[in-house]
From TrEMBL:
GO terms for molecular function: ATP binding; hydrolase activity; phosphorelay sensor kinase activity. Its EC number is 2.7.13.3. Residues 224-459 form the Histidine kinase domain. Keywords: ATP-binding, Hydrolase, Kinase, Membrane, Nucleotide-binding, Phosphoprotein, Transferase, Transmembrane, Transmembrane helix, Two-component regulatory system. The gene is cqsS. PANTHER family: PEROXIDE STRESS-ACTIVATED HISTIDINE KINASE MAK3 (PTHR43065:SF10), SENSOR HISTIDINE KINASE (PTHR43065). It catalyses: ATP + protein L-histidine = ADP + protein N-phospho-L-histidine. SUPFAM superfamilies: ATPase domain of HSP90 chaperone/DNA topoisomerase II/histidine kinase, Homodimeric domain of signal transducing histidine kinase. Gene3D superfamilies: 1.10.287.130, Histidine kinase-like ATPase, C-terminal domain. The chain crosses the membrane at residues 6-26, 33-52, 58-81, 93-115, 135-154, 166-185, 191-211. This is histidine kinase. The lineage of its organism: Bacteria, Pseudomonadati, Pseudomonadota, Betaproteobacteria, Burkholderiales.
Length: 472
C-alpha cells in the first residue's frame, strides 16, 4: 500500500524527463533536466522495493542504494539551474558539489558514516542517518540557496519571457526545498515522508518552464523573422547591384547632356560623387544586417549544433574572411592591424561560427575606440603549448573592474539601452567552448582591453586520426 505512491510518482518523474527531452531535443538544459528526473526516478523506484522488503539484509542494501541517488539529487538540481541561467562560471562550484557527492557516495557504500542501518516504520523501512549525514544536509542547504541566488541574479537583466521562466524556476526551488522535511525521518521522526509530493510538483513546474519558456522556444519565431527580413534585404541587394551596373552609363549620359547644353546641371557640388558611393553603402548595410541575422540564428541554435560536421579550418582564413566581410565605416579598416597568424594554423570546428566570433570582437573593439575618440586595434597570433592563441587588443576606454565578472553573461551589456542586446560575448564564449577552447578578457581602464581566444591546435597527426575515425 505505502509503496504505491513512490511507484506512481517515479513513473511521473521519468515521464517528465522524456517529455522534455523529446519535445526540446538534446540541449544542455534538456539533458541536465533529464539527469535530474532520472536521478529522482531511481531514488523513488528504489523506495518502492524498500517499503516492501522483508529481509534485513535486502532492506539495508536497498536503503543504501536509494540514498546513493539522494546524495546526488541536490547537485543535479543545481546543475539544471546553472544551465537554465547559463552561468558557465558556476562550473568549478558545480564540479566541487559533484565531487563531494561522490565522496559521500563512496563512504555510503563502504562504511556506516552516511547511513547507519535503517528504521522500521509503519510504512516500511527507511534509512537511518549516520555521523556524516549532516554534511549532506549542509551541502543541500548551500546548493538550494545558490540555485535561488542564480535565478534572482539572472532575472535582473533578463527579457520579459525569461523572467517568467526564472519566476517559475524560483517557485520550483521553493517547493523542492520543502522536500527537506523527509530528512527528519532519517533521524527517527515516525511519519510517512511527504517530500516526494513536493519534488513531483517542483519537477512538473520545471518541465513547463523548459518547454514553454525554453531557449529553443524562440527559434521558430527567430527563423520566421529572419526569413521575413532576409527576403526584402535580398531584393534591396539585387536592386543595388543593378544600380551599380547601370549608374556609370546613366552618369556618363547625364554629363554628356550637360556638356552639350541639352539640360541644365542642377546638381550641387559633390552630389554626384555621393550618389555614386550610395550603392556601395547600401550593399554594406545589407551585408551587415544579414550577418547580424545569421549570428542571431546561430546563437539560438548553438545547443543543437551537430558536432559531427566539425572539420579542420584555417585560422588565418577565418580572420581574413571576417575583415573582408565586415561592414567598416569610413577609415575604420585602417585602424585594424593583423600580425603573427600563421597560414598553417588550423582548428577543428565551424569556420562560419569562428568568423561570427571575430565579427563580434571586431564590432566591440571598434565601438571602444569610437568611444575613446580614436585608437587602434591589434589582432595578434601566437602559439602557446597545445593552443593557437588570437588576441584582440583595442586602445579604447577599457572595462571597469566591477563590470568585468559579468561581461560574458547573457543579456548583459554596457552599451546604451537599445544599442546592444548583451548576446555577443555570451555567444562568443559558447562557440569557443564548443570548439574545446576558451575565451578570456583582461582590461586596464583608460589604457586597453584584450580578448584572448585559445583554440586547440590541429596537427597532421590529429588530421590522420580524424580521417581514420570518419572512414570507420
Amino acid at each position: 500500500m505505502y509503496a504505491a505512491l513512490p511507484a506512481f510518482v517515479s513513473s511521473i518523474f521519468l515521464g517528465y524527463g522524456l517529455y522534455v527531452l523529446v519535445t526540446k531535443g538534446v540541449t544542455r538544459v534538456s539533458t541536465s533536466f533529464f539527469l535530474l528526473c532520472v536521478t529522482t526516478f531511481a531514488w523513488q523506484g528504489t523506495w518502492v522495493f524498500l517499503f516492501q522488503a522483508s529481509h534485513p539484509d535486502v532492506a539495508l542494501v536497498l536503503a543504501r542504494l536509494g540514498y546513493l541517488f539522494i546524495l546526488f539529487l541536490p547537485t543535479t538540481f543545481y546543475h539544471f539551474i546553472a544551465e537554465v541561467t547559463e552561468c558557465r562560471r558556476e562550473r568549478p562550484l558545480l564540479l566541487a558539489s559533484y565531487g563531494l557527492s561522490l565522496v559521500l557516495a563512496v563512504l555510503l557504500l563502504t562504511t556506516d558514516q552516511v547511513v547507519s542501518g535503517y528504521y522500521s516504520y509503519f510504512f516500511g523501512d527507511y534509512p537511518k542517518a549516520g555521523p556524516l549525514h549532516p554534511l549532506h544536509l549542509v551541502q543541500t542547504v548551500l546548493v538550494a540557496l545558490r540555485s535561488a541566488w542564480l535565478l534572482v541574479a539572472a532575472r535582473r537583466n533578463a527579457t520579459a519571457e525569461r523572467r517568467k521562466r526564472y519566476k517559475l524556476c524560483l517557485v520550483a526551488v521553493a517547493l523542492y526545498s520543502l522536500a527537506a522535511v523527509d530528512y527528519a525521518v532519517n533521524y527517527g521522526a515516525a511519519f510517512y515522508p511527504p517530500g516526494v509530493v513536493f519534488v513531483a510538483a517542483s519537477l512538473g513546474i520545471l518541465a513547463v518552464s523548459v518547454v514553454r519558456y525554453d531557449l529553443m522556444h524562440p527559434y521558430s519565431l527567430a527563423a520566421t523573422v529572419a526569413h521575413e527580413v532576409r527576403t526584402p534585404l535580398a531584393t534591396i541587394r539585387m536592386q543595388a547591384q543593378e544600380l551599380a551596373r547601370t549608374w556609370p552609363q546613366v552618369l556618363h549620359g547625364y554629363q554628356l547632356a550637360v556638356q552639350q547644353g541639352l539640360c541644365e546641371d542642377r546638381m550641387r557640388p559633390g552630389q554626384l560623387e555621393r550618389v555614386s558611393s550610395l550603392v556601395g553603402a547600401i550593399t554594406r548595410e545589407v551585408d551587415g544586417t544579414s550577418t547580424v541575422i545569421d549570428m542571431a540564428l546561430a546563437s539560438v541554435t548553438l545547443e543543437r549544433l551537430d558536432r559531427s560536421s566539425f572539420a579542420p579550418h584555417g585560422i588565418a582564413d577565418c580572420v581574413h574572411a571576417a575583415l573582408e566581410r565586415y561592414p567598416f565605416q569610413g577609415e575604420e579598416r585602417g585602424c585594424v592591424q593583423v600580425r603573427g597568424i600563421d597560414q598553417g594554423w588550423r582548428f577543428v570546428g565551424s569556420d562560419t561560427l569562428l568568423v561570427y566570433v571575430l565579427f563580434n570582437l571586431l564590432k566591440n573593439a571598434l565601438h571602444a575606440i569610437r568611444a575613446a575618440g580614436g585608437g587602434h586595434i591589434d589582432i595578434i597570433g601566437a602559439t602557446e603549448g597545445q593552443h593557437h592563441v588570437i588576441r584582440f587588443r583595442d586602445t579604447g576606454p577599457g572595462i571597469p573592474a566591477d563590470v568585468m565578472p559579468r561581461i560574458f553573461d547573457p543579456f548583459f551589456s554596457t552599451k546604451a539601452h537599445g544599442t546592444g542586446a548583451g548576446l555577443g560575448l555570451a555567444f562568443c564564449r559558447r562557440v569557443i567552448e564548443t570548439f574545446g577552447g576558451r575565451i578570456e578578457c583582461e582590461s586596464v581602464p583608460a589604457v586597453h582591453t584584450t580578448f584572448t581566444l585559445r583554440l586547440p591546435r590541429f596537427t597532421a597527426m590529429a588530421d590522420s586520426r580524424l580521417r581514420t575515425s570518419t572512414a570507420g
